[in-house]
Automatic annotation (TrEMBL):
<dbReference type="InterPro" id="IPR003838">
    <property type="entry name" value="ABC3_permease_C"/>
</dbReference>
<feature type="transmembrane region" description="Helical">
    <location>
        <begin position="291"/>
        <end position="313"/>
    </location>
</feature>
<feature type="transmembrane region" description="Helical">
    <location>
        <begin position="334"/>
        <end position="366"/>
    </location>
</feature>
<feature type="transmembrane region" description="Helical">
    <location>
        <begin position="26"/>
        <end position="46"/>
    </location>
</feature>
<keyword id="KW-0472">Membrane</keyword>
<keyword id="KW-1133">Transmembrane helix</keyword>
<dbReference type="InterPro" id="IPR025857">
    <property type="entry name" value="MacB_PCD"/>
</dbReference>
<feature type="transmembrane region" description="Helical">
    <location>
        <begin position="378"/>
        <end position="398"/>
    </location>
</feature>
<feature type="domain" description="ABC3 transporter permease C-terminal">
    <location>
        <begin position="295"/>
        <end position="408"/>
    </location>
</feature>
<keyword id="KW-1003">Cell membrane</keyword>
<dbReference type="Pfam" id="PF02687">
    <property type="entry name" value="FtsX"/>
</dbReference>
<dbReference type="GO" id="GO:0005886">
    <property type="term" value="C:plasma membrane"/>
</dbReference>
<protein>
    <submittedName>
        <fullName>Putative ABC transport system permease protein</fullName>
    </submittedName>
</protein>
<feature type="domain" description="MacB-like periplasmic core">
    <location>
        <begin position="25"/>
        <end position="253"/>
    </location>
</feature>
<dbReference type="InterPro" id="IPR050250">
    <property type="entry name" value="Macrolide_Exporter_MacB"/>
</dbReference>
<keyword id="KW-0812">Transmembrane</keyword>
<dbReference type="Pfam" id="PF12704">
    <property type="entry name" value="MacB_PCD"/>
</dbReference>
Length: 416
């Protein structure tokens, strides 16, 4: 009970110090507030970016391998000319892979036709990406339909003029009209809309279906040369349930080398890319940003800590005679020490709480202006409060210790 009463009195002393010395206290708390604000702001931004990356990877599939001409993330020790001379993946190679792969659940060959115009009556949408693909595209890349269906294997083989359109395309061309069954003009050719996709929104990789038009690859032959590098041909392979991307990649490498008849001494003339490559490359960037946040924030906290320590020494000086009276009435050293230590922690918690509140307000403003959900996590809130408590203990211990060691007679005499 005595200890709880000490804590209560210390908190009341802290609040009284805030009330009596408003300007001095605010200036001293400023360092803690700014430090917590900077550190938790950086952590919140990094957590948001990492969360968006994880969401993007999950959307594309964490066990999907992309067979392409160029590797992701730079060219390593090889001259660019070696990559430039590589052949692009072909539809025939995709068909051979489909017959041989044991670890794959599904695979798809894709080509891209960028910056095209769509027309429906008097409505037009420009800058559209048309994707020509094979039958299993919806099994490799998760597609959520708001209406209609995916094209059949027969429609793909025949090159039927059918299309699935993204949410932004549907809104731009049809508004409130149901697009299913309607004919639109895509890159100068008539196609029938058989499916519409749910709005996804942007992600970290810019990979959203909202402005896609998906057509059978054999129809895309009428619009673009699917063997040309300008159409960005590639092959996507998704592993079976429980099979990781690394295992799929290992089998793909062997089968692709066999298909292209590469001898054991020859280097690969294709790239096997995975979503986690991007995430791994961003990890050092996030680590640097986190470190920078810590460094900048700790400098502010250091200044704030000195400010809190200064307030506590002044508080000890102002209450020296009270301390003497308490000790002469039997108060133990730990009772006096706890008073000032709790007061220091309370002051730092006030500064830290203000910093966290400012971060919270910043997340609301940023989310409102950009439409990107930024969340101040419970862990970051806990971390901010924990740092505040540590600052309070470190900054307040020596003043509290000096108060506890005061001689009661000398302390009482100092008040007269």
């Amino acid at each position: 009970m005595l200890f709880l009463r000490s804590i209560k009195e210390s908190i009341l002393f802290a609040l009284e110090a805030l009330r009596v010395n408003k300007l001095r206290t605010i200036l001293s708390l400023l360092g803690v507030t700014i430090g917590i604000f900077l550190i938790i702001s950086v952590f919140t931004v990094v957590d948001t970016m990492e969360s968006k990356i994880r969401t993007s990877v999950q959307k594309l599939g964490d066990n999907v391998v992309y067979i392409q001409k160029w590797p992701w993330g730079g060219f390593g020790d090889y001259p660019w000319w070696d990559y430039f001379q590589r052949p692009v993946p072909t539809l025939e190679e995709h068909q051979k892979l489909s017959d041989r792969l044991q670890t794959a659940e599904a695979s798809t060959f894709n080509v891209g036709i960028g910056d095209r115009m769509l027309e429906f009556g008097t409505n037009t949408v420009e800058g559209v990406d048309i994707i020509g693909t094979t039958f299993q595209f919806d099994k490799v890349r998760d597609l959520e339909f708001s209406g209609g269906r995916y094209f059949t294997n027969m429609e793909m083989a025949k090159g039927s003029n059918v299309a699935i359109i993204g949410a932004t395309i549907a809104d731009g061309l049809f508004g409130s009209v149901d697009p299913i069954g309607k004919e639109i003009k895509a890159a100068g050719r008539q196609v029938t809309v058989i499916g519409t996709l749910v709005k996804e929104g942007d992600d970290m990789f810019g990979n959203t279906t909202d402005e896609w038009v998906i057509v059978p690859v054999n129809f895309a032959r009428n619009l673009v040369n699917i063997r040309s590098e300008s159409s960005n041909p590639d092959i996507w392979v998704k592993g079976k349930e429980g099979v990781g991307a690394a295992e799929v990649e290992a089998e793909l490498r062997g089968v692709m080398r066999s298909i292209r008849k590469l001898s054991p001494g020859e280097t690969d003339d294709f790239a096997l890319n995975r979503n986690d490559i991007v995430a791994q490359q961003l990890e050092p960037v996030f680590a640097i940003v986190n470190f920078a946040g810590w460094v900048i924030g700790l400098f502010s906290i250091l200044v704030g800590g000195f400010g809190i320590a200064n307030i506590m020494f002044v508080s000890v000086k102002e209450r020296t005679n009270i301390i003497g009276i308490q000790k002469s009435l039997g108060a133990k050293n730990y009772f006096v020490l706890s008073q000032f230590l709790v007061e220091s922690i309370a002051l730092c918690l006030i500064g830290g709480t203000i910093g966290l509140f400012l971060v919270f307000m910043l997340t609301l403003v940023f989310s409102s202006l950009t439409g990107t959900a930024v969340v101040l996590s419970a862990w970051n809130i806990t971390l901010g409060l924990l740092i505040s408590v540590i600052i309070g203990i470190v900054a307040g211990y020596w003043p509290a210790y000096s108060a506890a060691k005061l001689d009661p007679v000398e302390a009482i005499r100092s008040g007269f």
